[in-house]
Amino acid sequence: MARDLRVLLVEDSPDDAELLPRELRRGGYTPRWLRVQTREELRTALERETWDLVLADYSLPRFSAPEAFAVVKETGLDLPFIIVSGGIGEDIAVAAMKSGAHDYLMKGNLHRLLPAVVRELREAANRAGQREAKKALLESEHRYRMLWETAPDAVVLMDSQGTIHFANPAATCLS
After folding, report:
1. 44-48, 77-81, 120-124: which has the highest mean pLDDT?
2. Which residues does residue 55 pair with via DSSP β-bridges, in sequence order?
3. Do 123 and 102 meet the contact criterion of CB atoms below 8 Å apart?
4. In Å, what is the CA distance from 33 to each residue of 7, 11, 50?
5. Helix 90-98 and helix 65-75, axial crossing angle in degrees, nearest 10
6. What percentage of the chain has pLDDT greater than the value 70?
7. pTM (2 d.p.)
8. In Å, how far are 93, 140, 143 from 146, measured between CA atoms?
């Protein structure tokens, strides 16, 4: 069964933009994609729709993958960001990865695209799960604290040496 995938392509070449969705279809995805070429188009696309993945050429006439990644980062979205380019060296690819891009592929070597997409979608889902767990933990801690702080009975938490680590407001009224 094909899996839907919303892909934002930062690409200046219409031909290259067709290659990537074709490769995704071979891997069992049904890509719905939009090609953007400028910072403004990228920002608008990110504001108007929900995306699963960004595939970006490294260098466009008026835009670049590092600039595109900065725009994605500014939005606060946690989207897998994979650079797919034909003509940059290893040092530039490493620098892009250090700045936050999730992977780098050569256009002439697209057999790595599907494994990279699968891995990065899984990692994004893991990060989302971690964020949700942290949010739930913080909410639980807040409810717990509110329960003890508003309890009408005195609550004191102390260790075996008699050091008080917590006393609710009702306990302070006892002194």
Report:
1. 44-48
2. 9, 82
3. yes
4. 5, 12, 11
5. 10
6. 91
7. 0.74
8. 49, 10, 5
What is the average per-residue pLDDT within 13-28?
90
Rounded distance between C-alpha atoms, residue 100 and residue 109, angstroms: 22
Are 88 and 95 spatial neighbours (Cβ–Cβ below 8 Å)?
Answer: no
Which residue type occupies 83? I
pLDDT at 74 over 70: yes
Q: What is the reported pLDDT for 73?
A: 92
Work out the end-to-end distance of the chain between its first and last CA atoms, rounded to an integer number of angstroms: 69
Structure token pair of residue 2: 């094909």
